[in-house]
Amino acid sequence: MKGIENLGKILGLVIALFYFLFFQGNETYEYVFFVLVLVTVGIPHGAVDHLLVSPHLTKSKLISFLLKYIGIIAIYLIAWFFLPQISLIAFLIMSAYHFGQSHFIQSEIQKLKKTTYMLVGGFYLSIILWSDFSYTQKLLSSLINIENLESYGPGLIFFTFILSNILTAYNQPSRASFHILESVVLGFVLYHLPLLLGFIIYFGFWHALPSMNEEYRSLKKFLGENKRSNFLKKLMPFTALSLAGMWILLMLFYPSMTENELILLFFILISLISAPHIWFMNRFLESKKA
Ligand SMILES: CC1=C(/C=C/C(C)=C/C=C/C(C)=C/C=O)C(C)(C)CCC1
C-alpha cells in the first residue's frame, strides 16, 4: 500500500498548487482543507493505538490501556494549567520527534536515531511555524510573547536542514538524494503556504497517512475478509469520540474566546491527545524494528 502514501503526497502538493494558482489569501480554502484533512486522516491515524498494543485486546487490557492513556492526558492537562510555556515547548519537542519518526517508518536509522528524528521533524516544523511568523505569534500571544524569536527562524531552518540531511545521508546513503530533494521541494512549498494550510498538508500527508498505512499493514492479518472496510470500522469509535469531545469543548468556549484563542485551544486539545499517542506509537514503531 505504498501507493496510497504517494497518492496522498501528490494530493497534498495539488492542494498547495491550487492554493498558489487560484486561492491565494482565501481563508475559506484554507479552513475547508484544514477540516477535511484533519477529519479524514489527521485524527483517525491515532484512533487505533489500543490495537497496536495488541490486536486482540482483552477487556482488562483495554481498561489498563485506557487508564494509561487518560492518565497521560490528565497529567499533561495539569501541566498546561500550571506551566503553559513549558508545556508548549514540550509539545513542540515531542512533535518534532514524532514527525521525524514518520519519515523513517519503513526504513531503519542506525546512528543517532533520535537526533535524526528530532532534526528532520524540527526542520519541517520550524519552516511551518516561522514562514508565517506573524500569524504564529498572534495565535500564541495569549500564552507567550515570541516576538524576539523571529530572527532565529532562518538560522534554525538552515541548521536543521543541513544537519538532518547530513544525518539521513550518513544513515541511508542510497536515499540521500531523495531526502535532500524532498526537503528542498516540500520545504519550499511549506514556506510559501499560510500557517494552517502548510501545517495540515504536512501533518496529513507526510505524517498521518504514512502512519495509518503502517498501522494497516501491521493489523492486516487480523482484519478478516474485508480488510479495508474492517480497518475503517476500527478507526471509527475513537475518531468519533475525539472529534465530538473537541467539538463540544470548542463550542463551550466559543462565546467567550476570540477566533485566535479558539485555534490555540484547538491545538492544546490536539496536544493532549497527541501526548499518549506519541508514546504508544513510538513503542509500536520501534518494537517493530527491533
Ligand atoms: C501549527 C501550530 C502549532 C503547532 C502544532 C503542532 C506542533 C501540532 C502537532 C501535532 C501532533 C504531534 C499530532 C500527532 O499526531 C502551535 C505552535 C501550537 C500554534 C500555532 C499553530
UniProtKB/TrEMBL annotation:
For membrane topology, the record states: Multi-pass membrane protein
Question: Which GO-annotated molecular functions does the record name?
Answer: beta-carotene 15,15'-dioxygenase activity; carotenoid dioxygenase activity; iron ion binding
Which superkingdom? Bacteria
Enzyme Commission number(s) of this protein: 1.13.11.63
Cofactors named for this entry: Fe(2+)
Where is coiled-coil annotated?
none
| Chain ranges passing through the membrane | 7-25, 31-53, 117-135, 155-172, 184-209, 235-255, 262-280
Task: Give the primary localization class.
Answer: membrane
Catalytic activity entry: all-trans-beta-carotene + O2 = 2 all-trans-retinal
Keywords attached to this Swiss-Prot or TrEMBL record, sorted alphabetically, are:
Cell membrane, Dioxygenase, Iron, Membrane, Metal-binding, Oxidoreductase, Transmembrane, Transmembrane helix
Q: Which GO terms describe its biological process?
A: carotene catabolic process
Q: Where in the cell is it found?
A: Cell membrane
What function is annotated for this protein? Catalyzes the cleavage of beta-carotene at its central double bond (15,15') to yield two molecules of all-trans-retinal.
Instruction: Write down the NCBIfam families for this protein, in alphabetical order.
Output: blh_monoox
Protein family: Belongs to the Brp/Blh beta-carotene diooxygenase family.
Protein name in the entry: Probable beta-carotene 15,15'-dioxygenase
Where does this protein come from, organism-wise? Indibacter alkaliphilus (strain CCUG 57479 / KCTC 22604 / LW1)
